Every structure is written in structure tokens, then in C-alpha cells.
What we know:
Helix content of chain B: 40-55%
Number of domains of chain B: 2
Order of helices and strands of chain B: HEHHEHHEEHEHEHEHHEHEHEEHHHH
Number of strands of chain A: 5
CATH architecture of chain A: Roll
Largest interface: A-B, 34 and 46 residues
Number of helices of chain A: 2
Shape of chain A: globular
Radius of gyration of chain B: 20 Å
CATH topology of the largest domain in chain B: Rossmann fold
Number of domains of chain A: 1
Number of strands of chain B: 11
Largest sheet of chain B: 5 strands, parallel
Strand order of the largest sheet of chain B: 2-1-7-8-9
Order of helices and strands of chain A: EEEEEHH
CATH superfamily of the largest domain in chain B: HypD, alpha/beta domain 2
Largest sheet of chain A: 5 strands, antiparallel
Structural class of chain A: alpha+beta
Strand order of the largest sheet of chain A: 3-2-1-4-5
Strand content of chain A: 35-45%
Strand content of chain B: 15-25%
Oligomer: heterodimer
CATH architecture of the largest domain in chain B: 3-Layer(aba) Sandwich
Number of helices of chain B: 16
Bound molecules: iron/sulfur cluster
Shape of chain B: globular
Radius of gyration of chain A: 12 Å
Distance between the termini of chain A: 11 Å
CATH class of chain A: Mainly Beta
CATH class of the largest domain in chain B: Alpha Beta
Amino acid sequence: xxxxxxxxxxxxxxxxxxxxxxxxxxxxxxxxxxxxxxxxxxxxxxxxxxxxxxxxxxxxxxxxxxxxxxxxxxxxxxxx
Amino acid sequence: xxxxxxxxxxxxxxxxxxxxxxxxxxxxxxxxxxxxxxxxxxxxxxxxxxxxxxxxxxxxxxxxxxxxxxxxxxxxxxxxxxxxxxxxxxxxxxxxxxxxxxxxxxxxxxxxxxxxxxxxxxxxxxxxxxxxxxxxxxxxxxxxxxxxxxxxxxxxxxxxxxxxxxxxxxxxxxxxxxxxxxxxxxxxxxxxxxxxxxxxxxxxxxxxxxxxxxxxxxxxxxxxxxxxxxxxxxxxxxxxxxxxxxxxxxxxxxxxxxxxxxxxxxxxxxxxxxxxxxxxxxxxxxxxxxxxxxxxxxxxxxxxxxxxxxxxxxxxxxxxxxxxxxxxxxxxxxxxxxxxxxxxxxxxxxxxx
Lengths: 80, 353
Ligand code: SF4
């Protein structure tokens, strides 16, 4: 499945970030969100952060993702 | 999953359907909704009186056959390397799919990785297969600007980005009066903002409700939609307030506007929809794969018997296609709706109707 994944920004240099979701870390760009900083939660879609997201929404989505067998497949799918 | 919310939504939907006195048809236009709805069993808990149709919301499914043929043609050139999101790799063109050209195609997780591939392969021209709706378009804009700024010459994009709202309008104006309302996509709306659906509500008098992906949220949105239909008062509403605002992501919209012009586009099975696609602006011509290789996309003729077009328009259910589950399965797909895990046919096959 291909939900955009909420993740926390753990490293940030200009518009290049390392994000973390449930212990999975990967690189993402924050070009689309100019006012973002380390510690912020964002929704990451195909390698780009597309919006900020609050703790509650992030938690709900993580729970939903955790129920899926193919979490690792989620970040490489293209969503509508 | 919040049981109480779901039961309340079920009761509201049922009451609304009884009032309307016929089936209410709601179209979702988002591949992630399609999968979410099937997977979580939302379909099975929806009252009889409402039917969900899977519309043109999966980027792979709406990509025209002619475009796939161009991708394959470029993959067959010695000087090209194709960078594509994973979903596209198995979509059959007239002459096989990218899967059979693995030496010339790389799966990327983001547009940024496609540009990286170009940096790492200076002897090849990397062609990025730029498909997808408003959610993926800003990423393409970012890397085209990066490439221009950094003078990366061996990179170009084969742009087939599409716009959701013109497709929704076409579905209503052309061949289909069966759609009573739209369950609007979550992530597309993050970028464009829910006000973008105003024309659908104003001109076509159809409710447009944005929903998130969690089952209780989808049920609540369905209840809102059915109640609007029953009241005869279509409205614009976002029930995904955690991330969707009225205006969307202004930075993303500005980047897209800097890079692309709106143009006519071909949608698989639907045909040409005016002003429903994007092409690179002349100032980024050097990165336009169509121009660089002098190719024009010839709209595809599909003669496999695949009825994806009718599925995408909500005119038939996947099981009504004669090939469904027989000649066409996820293992050996005939059409893109079976290839993509977000496609309606694949979802029907995997989760049953
Ligand atoms: S079942 Fe296969 S052939 Fe039929 S419409 Fe779906 S994808 Fe096309």
C-alpha cells in the first residue's frame, strides 16, 4: 500500500533531511516546507515532505501502517 | 478503529439512503483510498443503499498506453537509462513492459533519486518517468530546477503528470450521470487544498468531501456525503483536517506553476481531457524528454479486450470484464488496473468484492 508516511525530522541540512518513522530511517527533502525544523513531524510522500502533521494523526497513521504486512513497501509506491 | 463512530456513520448512511429512495453512488478518486477501503473492510460494512466506485485515482491506471510505448522505446535506446517509480515497471505496452528491459531501467523511490542516478551515470541520459497527480508533481518540479541550477545535462523528464479536478469534471459531463458525489483524495488535497474542488460543487452540484485513510474517518465522510445527497445540498468539506487546508501547500503550487504549463492530456480508456495535464515550460525545454528525443505521444489503442477505461469511469465493476480473474490476474496482468496494487481490478481480485 502507498500511504504517505508520517515521519519525524531527525537531521536537517538546508532542504535535505533524515526522517524517522517507527525506527525506519530514510532521506527526504523538505523543499516544499520552508518553515520546518528538526523534531517536526511531517508527511513524507515519494521522498518529499508535503505537509506538517500533528502527533495524533501521525500516531493513528503509524498504527494503521503497523497493521500492514508491507510497511517497507509503502515508501516506494506512488500514491494518488 | 472506533466502533461507536462507525455505528453512528452506518445509521446515518442508512437513514440518508432511505430518504433518497435509490442507491447513492460515491466515487473515490484516490488509489490509496481504494486500497484502504478494500483492505479494512469498509465496503462490507457500508449499508446496501450506497455503492462505492473506484475512479481514476491510481496514477499507473490512468497512464495512456501510448505513453508506456514511448517509455519502452526510450528504454530500448543504448544511450538512455530509465528512472521510474516501482509501480510502472510491470505495465504492459504494445511490446512488453519495462520489466523485460531491466538492464535499462532503475526503480527510484523519489524524483531526487532519479537526478542522483543522472549524476552517477554521466555517459547515459537518464529519463525520469514522471507520472502521478498533484502529490508527485512538485517533486518533479524541484528536481528539474535542481538540474537546471546545477547544469546537469544528462537528465530529462518524460512528463505525464495529471490534474485530478478536470478528470472529475469530465466524468460528470461526458458519459456518466451515475456519480452522485466524490470522496476526494487525501494527499492530492494536501497540495491543492480542498477549495480546488469548488467547481465540481458549484457547476455540477455534487458533494465533494475530502477524507483521510483510516476506516472510521472514511465512514464518517461517507455519512457526510450521503446526508448531503439526501438534503439535496451539495457542499465542499474536508474531514481530513489534520493535514488538508483550504488552500493547500502554497510553496508546492508555486514551484509547479514555475515549471509547468497546463495542457491537454490523454487518460487511458477515457481519452483526451482538455487542460488536464502538465508539460514543462519552454524555459525548461532542455529537460523535456519529448522535445529532446523529438517524440510525440500517440494516443494508445488498446486491443487486448481490457476494460480499464470503463472501470475507471465507474461504468462497470472489474468482475464485469470478461478477462477478470481468468486471462487477467495480478500474476499476469493484462491492464494497468490489475498491475498496480492500487488498481481497482487488483483490489477486487485480492480482497473480493
Ligand atoms: S480485469 Fe484486467 S483486462 Fe479487465 S479491466 Fe481489469 S485490468 Fe483490464
